[in-house]
């Protein structure tokens, strides 16, 4: 009985030191070794750093991978890794960022383990510490059924190798046109609220009289029509007539 308890305690210690479920898919930190930070490698724009990479063995698939931040490609949505058929007709998630597990190896170099949302596939990314500014990814493909392996070689895999590296910035998803539309809608909303409140509380108006500058908005379509006709006559058929005064 005592022997069984000791064995269970030993197994518990091994599990604690060899598997750590990370709160952050970008970072792994230990008191003795320091910090491994992958946040400066990954892209934040929803696309993978490595896209459609063929494996080092013959397969009918290519693979995409993005450390730290989720991406989407084909039918893979918000994933860490994606398996895509060479013809582009099929694609499968092979792991999500939220599922990441940091696992210690015998050489004290953590590896990453991702699991797909349906928990049918797993992606294993071994890390290799190199003294280079270049980040390299080797794709080994499907080594066992529903198990996929890659090797990430980077200085960020070294302890404290990228501790002070600048993080990628998230791109602005709004275009200039979208920003202008938002500003226009906000100005119109403010205009309506301000003058409707003024007409109601200060001028004691009600009904359609609450509409600010109502007479102007009623005649505006007529002015617009006259302007279009004037421009049409001037540009297309200027000899047919002239602008009529109102």
UniProtKB/TrEMBL annotation:
Gene Ontology BP, a term: protein transport
Every MRH domain range: 24-160
PROSITE patterns named in the record: MRH (PS51914)
Regions crossing the membrane: 177-198
Signal peptide residues on this chain, from the entry's feature table: 1-22
Keywords in alphabetical order: Autophagy, Cytoplasmic vesicle, Disulfide bond, Golgi apparatus, Membrane, Mitochondrion, Protein transport, Signal, Transmembrane, Transmembrane helix, Transport
InterPro entries documented for this protein: Autophagy-rel_prot_27, Man6P_isomerase_rcpt-bd_dom_sf, MRH_dom
Pfam family, one: ATG27
Topology of this chain in the membrane: Single-pass type I membrane protein; Single-pass membrane protein
Subcellular location: Cytoplasmic vesicle membrane; Golgi apparatus membrane; Mitochondrion membrane; Preautophagosomal structure membrane
Broad class of where this protein is predominantly found: membrane
GO CC term, one of those recorded: trans-Golgi network
Protein origin, superkingdom: Eukaryota
Family as reported in the entry's similarity comment: Belongs to the ATG27 family.
Protein name: Autophagy-related protein 27
Species of origin: Rotaria sordida
């Amino acid at each position: 009985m005592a022997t069984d308890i000791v064995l269970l305690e030993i197994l518990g210690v091994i599990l604690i030191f060899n598997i750590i479920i990370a709160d952050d898919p970008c970072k792994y930190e230990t008191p003795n070794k320091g910090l491994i930070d992958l946040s400066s490698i990954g892209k934040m724009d929803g696309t993978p750093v490595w896209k459609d990479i063929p494996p080092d063995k013959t397969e009918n698939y290519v693979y995409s991978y993005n450390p730290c931040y989720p991406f989407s490609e084909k039918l893979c949505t918000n994933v860490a890794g994606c398996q895509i058929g060479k013809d582009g007709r099929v694609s499968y998630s092979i792991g999500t960022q939220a599922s990441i597990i940091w696992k210690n190896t015998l050489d004290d170099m953590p590896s990453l383990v991702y699991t797909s949302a349906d928990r049918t596939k797993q992606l294993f990314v071994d890390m290799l510490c190199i003294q280079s500014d270049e980040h390299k990814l080797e794709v080994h493909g499907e080594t066992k059924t529903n198990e996929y392996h890659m090797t990430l070689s980077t200085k960020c895999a070294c302890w404290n190798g990228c501790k002070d590296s600048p993080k990628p910035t998230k791109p602005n998803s709004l275009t200039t046109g979208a920003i202008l539309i938002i500003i226009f809608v906000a100005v119109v909303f403010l205009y309506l609220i301000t003058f409707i409140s003024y007409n109601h509380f200060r001028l004691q108006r009600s009904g359609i009289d609450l509409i600010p500058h109502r007479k102007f908005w009623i005649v505006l379509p007529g002015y617009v029509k006259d302007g279009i006709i004037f421009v049409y006559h001037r540009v297309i058929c200027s000899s047919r007539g002239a602008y009529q005064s109102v």
